[in-house]
Structure formats: structure tokens, C-alpha cells
Design brief:
By secondary structure, the protein is an alpha/beta fold. Among the domains are: about 105-270, Malic enzyme, N-terminal domain (Rossmann fold, 3-Layer(aba) Sandwich), CATH 3.40.50.10380; about 280-460, Rossmann fold. About 45% of the residues lie in helices and about 10% in strands. It is built from 25 helices and 14 strands. The chain has a 7-stranded mixed sheet, with helices on both faces. Strands 1-3-2-4-5 form a 5-stranded parallel sheet, sandwiched between helices. β7 and β8 form a beta hairpin. α5 (about 75-85) packs across α6 (about 90-100) and α22 runs antiparallel to α24 (about 510-530). The radius of gyration is 24 Å and the shape is globular. The two termini are about 30 Å apart. The relative contact order is 0.10.
Length: about 550
């Protein structure tokens, strides 16, 4: 049936139809724009619908890159790139892959944070699915409305904890869209199989509820049984409609993130990137840093600022790695300490602590500040996952430097505005001795004639490869051992040229290579643990590489 807004006069003008030409130009997976050849224009009925000159894909990339660079600010660049993705995905991904260091900060952190804040006012067209409390009882029906019948990779958020920005409700849709773009650009997961979903259960952000352009439900965030029943129906619907799908939980609040992961990780292949992906990339950075400091992982003392999903996830993975080096679980946990919003996490506070913090509540005198904790514990690594900017003060960095010849200082909170300190601050206050990494990118910094290039401890190094590996072997579960293998694989790819400039991660230009290596390591774990549905190919690496999406135009005639 035609839309009701077109009903007047249809009997006189005839029913609307969508010819093959319009279908091609309006489908971003099929559209080539000005790259349609002369033969294709004639055969497909495109003659007259496009400018006469035929461009190559390379020429289109050059034109699009110039257009991005002409934009005055990062948000305008994000909007341009989003429109390009909605129009021509082959061109979009070729542009991103050929300019990954320039484009990734625009399509994801740090720009995506501002894009989410502005999502209601910059919204152009639907990309992904919004499933709300109003759809209770019919979520499976809603999922079947997705135009691609074989969704294999779903990133879902409920918008409660978007980056370090808090509860953004339905505006959080920018995160699943961005993450799935990275899956394609950085690991070659075909965009046809990706599905971004926002579960709109309301928001407790008063400014959004009163906002003129807020696009979500104008009601308080659902809690308790209503929320749990809604999530249960959603998970069951995913299993029914997309039985081969991998589900990534993204930016859920602490009260839900841990329990949803534990409840569902064995029901369908799923993981939480904020917990497990962040853990793997941080652990890889610490392992990489030890190539500069010497010493063993088992002998490190880690102090975390922030005791939420990211921090305890990193600590849990460190514990697994330290156990592999010979420590007991209790000994490994004793190497990890936390400062939360109330101060040092210790046993005397146990009655007031959330369950996920209890494993790291040690016997120690309580201290109220980070500086006091650094002084008392003398950590070898300081890891910021607090979302609290400028909390790694000069005093803290100088103390870390006094206690360690090469202090490991990771300011991992996103976006850039939430970083615990900048690269320049870490290098300057440590006299150039800090081994620094951050969640969002910082530029290189020169101090006393030496150039320091900070590593970006971004989950982009981990989750695309983990997802690719799990999909390639059709793993029925994504295990912690897979993330440990991913961390170890990433650390092994740090070269001497990286270490020479102080960078504890490979160059972002190698991210597809990194993802392939991680995918192979993940698939090997799946086969070893009997979790793979697909028979193992003779050459696992070649098989996975052959499945990676390459942004090239197909010939239609």
C-alpha cells in the first residue's frame, strides 16, 4: 500500500512504483553513484539520473576526503560521513580504511560522544532499530521488520551509560552504529549482516525529558521486573529471529551490565565490550609496557581509579593472566586495588560495596583520595576508567614517577573531555618517563628533543577481531579465555618501532591485520574448547581472511 500522505490523486496519476534504477541509487550497499559505467547506465536505466562524467572509486575517495577536510569542525565531519555511509557504503568504507587514523576519531571516539549528545537535532534517517517498551509482547515481530534477513552481528544499548557522558536514552544510538562501522572497517564484517539496536526503556536524564528535540520515550527509565522482562523478551526474540547472531552488549549501566552478561553469555554468543573488550586492550597495553620496563606481569601492582564495568573487567582479566604465570587467584587479586568515588576499596567498606567490587576489597587502612592511595600502595601501573577528567593530577603523576623508573599511566576514559589527564601532562610531569596510553587519541608530544607518541588504548583493537573470529567459526559462546588470547595476541604485535617512540600498541593503520590475527586466535580457542559449530577449515587464517569484506564495486553488466 502507498503511504497515506500520497493518497490524494493517486487514481488519476497511477500507483507509485520503484524502478530498478531508483532501487540501486537508494540502496547504500548497491549504489555506486557517479562510478556507474556507461554500459551500466544504459542497462540499468540510470541514464539521465546521474551527472554525465564517470568517476573511478579512487577519484570518489579523493573527492570525499577533500569534502571531509573542508568541514569546519568534527561534528560537521561526522554528519558528512554519516550521510555518505547512508548513501554509498562501499565508498564510505574505502574512505575510512584508506585514512583510518584520520577517520576513526570522526566516526567513533571522541566525536561520537558529541554526536550522541546532539543526536536528536542531527538525526537524518533511520539506521538500525529502536525497540521500546511500547513493543512489549511483539519484539520478535519488530525484529522481523529489519530488511536484511540474516543479521549475524548485533550491537545493542539501552543508553544508560554512554561513554563517560551518562544516561542519554535513545540518543545512545550513535554508539551501536559506530561500533558496527568499526566492525566492517577494521575487521571486514560485511555491513549487510550488521544490526544496531537501541532498547528505549526511558531515561532519567531530566534535560532530555524536557528537551525539544529528544527522539525517545518521554518517561522515566524502567527498572526492576518491567526492565528484566523486557530484556528477557528481547534476548528470546534474537534467538528466534536471528539464531546465528552474535550479540554485543554496549554501554549499559553498572547495575545491569554485569548481571545481563552473566545471565545471557551462555544462552547465545554474546559479550560486553565495556567489560571484556576494555579489559583486553588495557591488559595488552600493560604487557606491552613491560617490554619497556622489564619485569613480569605477575609482579605488577595495579591501581584503578574507577571501580565500574571497565575497571573490574580489566582486573579480572589480569587475574587470569597472572594465574597463567603461576599466582593463585587470591594472590593475583591482591595485586589489584581500586579507588572509587568514596575512596580506597577496602574490606572495612564491604557492607556498602556493590557485588562486583567485593573481590577487590582488601585488608588495608582506608584512605580517601587517589593521591593517598598512590602514596600508600606504590603501584607500578595507574589505570583511569573513572570518567572524571583531570583526576591524574601533577602530584599523582610525580608520585608515580618517584616510585617507578617508567610508570605506566593509562587515562582510558572517553571521550577526550573525560580523560584523567592528557598525554602532554603525563609526559611533562613525569619528565618524559611515563608509559602513557589513552582511550581517545592524543597527538604526539616532543619533550627535551624526544618525540613521544601516545598509544590509544581503544577497544577498536579488540572487539572487531573477537567478533570476526566468533562469527567465522560460528562459536556458540564467547569466553574469557578468548579475550585473554586477544590481549596476548595484540601485545605480541607491538613492534620495536612502536616501543622506540613509547607506543604500547601497534599503529592504527595495521588494525585490519591485528583483527585478523585476533580472529584466528579466538577461533582456535573455540575449536580447542569444543565451542565451534562450523567444521575447522584446513587453513584457518586463509579461511577467515577470505571472509573479510573488501570495499570494491561490483560489475552489474
Amino acid at each position: 500500500m502507498p503511504p497515506t500522505s500520497y493518497s490524494t490523486g493517486l487514481s488519476a496519476w497511477g500507483a507509485p512504483h520503484q524502478p530498478r534504477a531508483a532501487a540501486l541509487l537508494n540502496d547504500p550497499l548497491l549504489n555506486k553513484g557517479t562510478a556507474f559505467t556507461e554500459r551500466e547506465r544504459d542497462a540499468l536505466g540510470l541514464r539521465g539520473l546521474l551527472p554525465p562524467r564517470v568517476f573511478t572509486l579512487e577519484e570518489q575517495v579523493g573527492r570525499s576526503l577533500a569534502a571531509v577536510r573542508r568541514k569546519s569542525d568534527a561534528l560537521e565531519k561526522y554528519i558528512y560521513l554519516t550521510n555518505l555511509q547512508n548513501r554509498n557504503e562501499t565508498l564510505f568504507y574505502r574512505l575510512v580504511m584508506e585514512n583510518v587514523e584520520e577517520m576513526v576519531p570522526l566516526i567513533y571516539t571522541p566525536t561520537v560522544g558529541q554526536a550522541c549528545l546532539e543526536y536528536g537535532s542531527i538525526y537524518r534517517r533511520a539506521r538500525g532499530m529502536f525497540i521500546t517498551l511500547r513493543e512489549r509482547g511483539r519484539i520478535a515481530e519488530i525484529l522481523r521488520m529489519w530488511p536484511h534477513e540474516q543479521a549475524r552481528l548485533i550491537v545493542v544499548t539501552d543508553g544508560e551509560r554512554i561513554l563517560g557522558l551518562g544516561d542519554l536514552g535513545a540518543l545512545g544510538m550513535g554508539i551501536p552504529i559506530g561500533k558496527l562501522s568499526l566492525y566492517t572497517a577494521c575487521a571486514g564484517v560485511h555491513p549487510y549482516y550488521t544490526l544496531p539496536i537501541t532498547l528505549d526503556v526511558g531515561t532519567d536524564n531530566a534535560s532530555l525529558l524536557d528537551g525539544e528535540f529528544y527522539i525517545g520515550l518521554r518517561e522515566k527509565r524502567a527498572r526492576g521486573k518491567v526492565y528484566d522482562d523486557f530484556i528477557e523478551e528481547f534476548v528470546t526474540a534474537v534467538q528466534t529471529v536471528f539464531p546465528k547472531a552474535l550479540l554485543q552488549w554496549e554501554d549499559f549501566g553498572n547495575t545491569n551490565a554485569f548481571r545481563l552478561l552473566q545471565q545471557n553469555r551462555r544462552r547465545l554468543p554474546s559479550f560486553n565490550d565495556d567489560i571484556q573488550g576494555t579489559a583486553a586492550v588495557a591488559l595488552a597495553g600493560v604487557i606491552g609496557g613491560l617490554q619497556l620496563t622489564g619485569g613480569k606481569l605477575r609482579d605488577q601492582r595495579l591501581l584503578f581509579l574507577g571501580a565500574g564495568e571497565a575497571g573490574t573487567g580489566i582486573a579480572d582479566l589480569y587475574v587470569a593472566a597472572a594465574q597463567a604465570e603461576g599466582l593463585t587467584e587470591a594472590e593475583a587479586r591482591q595485586r589489584c586495588w581500586f579507588v572509587d568515588s568514596k575512596g580506597l576499596v577496602v574490606k572495612s567498606r564491604a557492607a556498602q560495596l556493590a557485588e562486583h567490587k567485593l573481590h577487590y576489597a582488601h585488608d588495608h587502612e582506608f584512605v580517601a583520595t587517589l593521591a593517598e592511595a598512590v602514596k600508600a600502595l606504590r603501584p607500578t601501573a595507574l589505570i583511569g576508567v573513572s570518567g572524571m577528567p583531570q583526576t591524574f593530577t601533577r602530584e599523582v603523576v610525580e608520585m608515580m614517577s618517584a616510585n617507578n623508573p617508567r610508570p605506566i599511566i593509562f587515562a582510558l576514559s572517553n571521550p577526550t573531555s573525560k580523560a584523567e589527564c592528557t598525554a602532554e601532562q603525563a609526559y611533562t610531569w613525569s619528565g618524559g618517563r611515563a608509559i602513557f596510553a589513552s582511550g581517545s587519541p592524543f597527538p604526539a608530544f616532543e619533550l627535551n628533543g624526544r618525540r613521544h607518541v601516545p598509544g590509544q588504548g581503544n577497544n577498536i583493537y579488540i572487539f572487531p577481531g573477537v567478533g570476526l573470529g566468533a562469527l567465522a567459526c560460528e562459536a556458540r559462546e564467547v569466553t574469557d579465555s578468548m579475550f585473554l588470547a586477544a590481549a596476548q595476541t595484540l601485545a605480541s604485535l607491538v613492534g620495536q618501532e612502536d616501543l622506540a617512540i613509547g607506543r604500547v600498541y601497534p599503529s592504527l593503520t595495521r588494525v585490519r591485520e591485528v583483527s585478523l590475527h585476533i580472529a584466528v586466535a579466538v577461533a582456535k580457542i573455540a575449536y580447542a574448547e569444543g565451542l565451534a559449530h562450523r567444521p575447522r577449515p584446513v587453513d584457518l587464517k586463509e579461511d577467515i581472511a577470505s571472509r573479510m569484506f573488501q570495499p570494491v564495486y561490483r560489475d552489474y553488466v
